[in-house]
Amino acid sequence: MGSFYGTKVTFGSHKLFLDPCLAMSIQREGGAWVFGGGLHPPDTATVVRATDTEARTTDGPYLEGKEHIGRFTVITAPDLDAALEWGRKLAQATTLPIEVRPLADGTCG
Fold this sequence. Notes:
The protein contains 2 helices and 6 strands; from the N terminus they run ββαββββα. By secondary structure, the chain is of the alpha+beta class.
């Protein structure tokens, strides 16, 4: 894995942004960007599970799999069609699959 700044980075056959801020800039210009960020690899994860008496931690990701979330972005969109259009732009820019889903209503914050 190479640096995300100024060099080409590939994971398998997938090309990522030369500039990690490119998608964010495009989304900001379109008035859609809310926040986002990159994530460390899954092997750096710690899972916290509640029991009846305490919270226990285990090393590693919640689920083992070949694919994992490497970055997330939260945008604002007037409807699903607009959100999917942003998803299409991001998928074309990264050549990676992009999952689009709404935030749950009633989220605290």
